[in-house]
Write a structure and sequence with these properties.
CATH topology: Nonspecific Lipid-transfer Protein, Chain A
Oligomer: single chain
Shape: globular
Distance between the termini: 32 Å
CATH class: Alpha Beta
CATH architecture: 2-Layer Sandwich
Number of helices: 4
Structural class: alpha+beta
Order of helices and strands: HEEEEHHEH
Helix content: 25-40%
CATH superfamily: SCP2 sterol-binding domain
Amino acid sequence: MADPVVEFFDGLERAESTVLPVRVNGTARFDLNQDGETDHWYVAIQEGAVSVSHEMRDADVVLNAERGFFERLVTGRANLFASLLRRDFTVEGNLQLLMPIERILPQPPGAHDPRAFAPGRNDRT
């Protein structure tokens, strides 16, 4: 069975460059806890391009979460900001980077891009 966390991070580097605005620059570290161990994922965003590693180094923002919760986040079954308000995870550092992080997370299953329903578009399905 595929690991959704690994698939998410592997897919970040291959994602279209249009996912993030070019002006986005920063680093994020995701500390994922499971069974008393912590797995680190370091994400560097430079002018919209993303690189991922397992480095344990300082980052502009650090998100600390249980791995099971993060699996729900990367499969679109949890919302970043609603989960933050519920304290499902903790975050330290530059909170402004949460907006670009939210953009790289998948939408809930069955969700549609609202731009598809914008006035003047004829491709509604």
